[in-house]
Design goal:
By secondary structure, the chain is mostly helical. It has 6 helices and 2 strands. Helix 1 runs parallel beside helix 3, helix 3 runs antiparallel to helix 4 and helix 3 packs across helix 5.
Length: 189
């Protein structure tokens, strides 16, 4: 199950990272760089939904795919956030909150899986909402211009990325609260 269609799509998100970063080093007009990076990010972010759908539809789910999918998502989001911080379109504090949470919750989930309590930190709607807001904020900030001559994506993206940061902290607290009984049970033993 290493090279199924869904898994290859997941790999494309990892391959996309140097491409998106490289766009901003290319000898292009800034607006062209923004447009290309935005379209690429959206296209690769869509593969997150599409690979899961195809895995179920084609009966090609695998434990490797289940592992790789969230890793690819985190890499893509973290790389985009670092680009946005570099371009001074996102606050470094926001990036630290989001990246720090991803590392902490990934480590928590790994530990909970090792002790057989992974259900207590299963993906929750709050985490999905956080991801959705991030996935809208990032392309807005990458585009950094007026959309349809009306929507100032820089302003909207800034508001949305701060909302994503708040949801990030909220979801982290939620997952830690869910894991706390298992953590206490292990510390007592």
């Amino acid at each position: 199950m290493f090279f199924t269609i869904p898994t290859i799509m997941t790999w494309t998100r990892i391959v996309a990272i140097p491409l998106i970063v490289g766009v901003f080093s290319a000898p292009l007009e800034p607006q062209t760089q923004n447009l290309i990076a935005t379209v690429m990010f959206i296209a690769f972010a869509i593969t997150d939904w599409l690979d899961g759908y195809l895995a179920r539809k084609l009966n090609q789910t695998s434990s490797f795919g289940a592992f790789l999918d969230p890793v690819a998502d985190k890499f893509l989001v973290c790389a985009a956030l670092l680009v946005l911080v570099h371009l001074q379109r996102a606050d470094v504090f926001v990036a630290l909150i989001i990246i720090g949470r991803e590392i902490a919750i990934s480590a928590l989930r790994e530990w909970m899986a090792q002790i057989g309590a992974s259900k207590s930190v299963a993906v929750h709607m709050l985490g999905k909402l956080k991801t959705t807001v991030q996935m809208v904020a990032i392309p807005f900030l990458l585009y950094d211009s007026k959309l349809f001559g009306v929507i100032d994506t820089g302003v909207w993206g800034t508001w949305l990325i701060w909302i994503a940061a708040i949801l990030t902290v909220w979801s982290m607290v939620y997952y830690l609260q869910k894991a706390l009984p298992e953590i206490r049970a292990r510390v007592v033993k």
